[in-house]
């Protein structure tokens, strides 16, 4: 199946696009810029969703749902927010269609059905939620509000790529309200840590936690915190963001509460979200020239069992062992598929499951079974070994754990190997042009310098890491004084 699959080194972008389609994750739809997430791809998203949902609820959050349509006037209440999203908004102007008046076939908006106020199709929900919170919040006793919603959003993108950037995508967005600045800032950082834990423990993707520069902040935020991951082509991918919104939206929507001191005060806010873009991060961090590579924690099928036989008698003996192994593993909470389909040969199945990134394969052949053996094959290393079939179920869980750890460590080592310091503009440009990856360099803190570097190189400041050490230096571009290094990279 993967023989003519394009290599990453030949064309990374084509490799990614082809992998998404051939691994049955998604396909482009008839609607420009939108994708169809296929069952196998959606099964991975469901595992992500389930894990994150549990993590959110463990930190006290509850799920709710808010309208898809947002009155245009709501967006206009927070100036920076509307400016940040204006070019991406899809707008509903009419609520009904009518046959064309010129007699030609087709439909057109009914002029009598024009909306009194245009509606924005949700690009993000701060405005509609803060209009709602105004009705929910009266006193300090109503705080904090810790809400999350799982939803779809629309941001009208001109250049799209499945999972990474589409006109419509799936995500979750948390929106919280607090009585104090300290509570809200702590919430925003706590949720960033939740994202980082998820990325590293479930996705096996190492991330750098930090704060965005003012130029890269979410529109309407006081501070934006982020996790940044490195893909195998050296580019950065923003894997999650958490925003401290200050009182900006509370003031825009006049959301006040009566404090314990009996004073009316504006509420403090956060918002935070991750999307199906995580699917892109998962694919590009681990996959290889043989296809998809999935960490066991998120693989829809963690173990596949494939039989090899010639006679019905051999088939029956293999079936007995396969069903025993499958049942035992499922009792351990491991997802298993026994592929006993006869219309496909074992070799075809090997390629199929390798390409789809199934972490572990158990092959039971009649000859090996006669010797009390079976073969296990790891997708991460492609290593195979014969083991005792009687005790194979005892090896699976530790092997899956080892695959999970190996994928994380391999990705971390790749990031470390491809993170370099630059102290001069010449070094900076040379690294970008010939090596790629992350660049740790001094920046003078001005938006002008940041914009100029982006204009000249397409590299942006991905984050100012939380664990940065203070270090006196000179800006890599302007030569002006700088107190710390920041992370630059080209990004998705």
Explain how this protein is built.
The chain is an alpha+beta fold and about 500 residues long. The chain is about 35% helix and about 30% strand. The chain has 14 helices and 27 strands. The strands form 7 sheets. It has an 11-stranded mixed β-sheet, sandwiched between helices. Strand 17 (about 305-310), helix 9 (about 310-330) and strand 18 form a beta-alpha-beta unit. The longest helix has 26 residues, at about 390-415. It is globular. The two termini are about 30 Å apart. The mean pLDDT is about 95.
Shape: globular
How many H/I helical runs?
Answer: 14
* Mean pLDDT score: 96
The amount of beta strand, in percent, is 25-35%
Give the helix/strand class.
alpha+beta
Tell me the major beta sheet: 11 strands, mixed
Tell me roughly what share of residues is in helical segments.
Answer: 25-40%
Q: How many beta-strand segments?
A: 27
Oligomer: single chain
Report how far apart the termini are: 29 Å
- Tell me the Rg in angstroms: 26 Å
Order of the strands making up the biggest sheet: 3-9-10-16-13-12-11-24-27-23-22
Query: Which segments are poorly predicted (pLDDT under 50) over 5 or more consecutive residues?
Result: none
């Amino acid at each position: 199946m993967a023989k003519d699959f394009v290599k990453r080194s030949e064309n990374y972008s084509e490799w990614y696009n082809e992998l998404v389609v051939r691994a049955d994750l998604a396909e482009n739809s008839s609607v420009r810029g939108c994708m169809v997430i296929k069952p196998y791809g959606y099964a991975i998203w469901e595992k992500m969703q389930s894990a994150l949902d549990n993590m959110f609820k463990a930190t006290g959050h509850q799920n709710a749902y808010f309208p898809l349509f947002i009155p245009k006037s709501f967006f206009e209440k927070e100036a920076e927010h509307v400016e940040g999203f204006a070019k991406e908004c899809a707008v509903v102007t009419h609520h009904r269609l009518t046959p064309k008046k010129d007699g030609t076939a087709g439909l057109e908006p009914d002029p009598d059905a024009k909306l009194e106020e245009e509606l924005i199709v949700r690009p993000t929900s701060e405005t509609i939620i803060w209009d709602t919170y105004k009705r929910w919040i009266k006193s300090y006793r109503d705080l904090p509000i810790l809400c999350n919603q799982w939803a779809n959003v629309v941001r009208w993108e001109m250049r799209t790529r499945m999972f990474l950037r589409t006109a419509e995508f799936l995500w979750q967005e948390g929106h919280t309200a607090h009585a104090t600045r300290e509570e809200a800032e702590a919430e925003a950082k706590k949720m960033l840590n939740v994202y980082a834990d998820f990325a590293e423990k479930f996705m096996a993707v190492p991330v750098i936690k930090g704060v965005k520069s003012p130029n890269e902040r979410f529109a309407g935020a006081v501070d934006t915190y982020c996790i940044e991951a490195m893909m195998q082509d050296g580019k950065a991918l923003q894997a999650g963001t958490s925003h401290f919104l200050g009182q900006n939206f509370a003031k825009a929507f006049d959301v006040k509460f009566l404090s314990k001191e009996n004073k009316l005060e504006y509420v403090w806010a956060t918002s935070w979200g991750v999307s199906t873009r995580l699917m892109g991060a998962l694919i590009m961090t681990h996959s290889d020239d043989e296809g998809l590579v999935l960490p066991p924690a998120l693989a829809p099928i963690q173990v596949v069992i494939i039989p090899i036989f010639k006679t019905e008698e051999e088939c029956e003996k293999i079936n007995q062992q396969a069903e025993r192994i499958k049942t035992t593993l499922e009792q351990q909470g491991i997802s298993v598929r026994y592929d006993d389909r006869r219309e496909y040969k074992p070799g075809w199945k090997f390629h199929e499951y390798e390409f789809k990134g199934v972490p572990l394969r158990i092959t039971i052949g009649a000859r090996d079974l006669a010797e009390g053996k079976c073969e296990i094959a790891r997708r991460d290393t492609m290593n195979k070994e014969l083991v005792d079939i009687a005790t194979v179920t005892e090896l699976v869980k530790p092997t899956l754990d080892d695959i999970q750890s190996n994928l994380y460590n391999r990705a971390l080592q790749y990031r470390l190997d491809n993170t370099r310091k630059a102290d001069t503009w010449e070094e900076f440009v040379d690294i970008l042009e010939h090596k790629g990856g992350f660049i740790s360099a001094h920046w003078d803190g001005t938006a002008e310098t940041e914009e100029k570097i982006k204009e000249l190189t397409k590299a942006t400041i991905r984050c100012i890491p939380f664990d940065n050490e203070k270090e006196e230096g000179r800006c890599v571009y302007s030569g002006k004084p700088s107190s710390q290094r920041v992370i630059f990279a080209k990004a998705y």
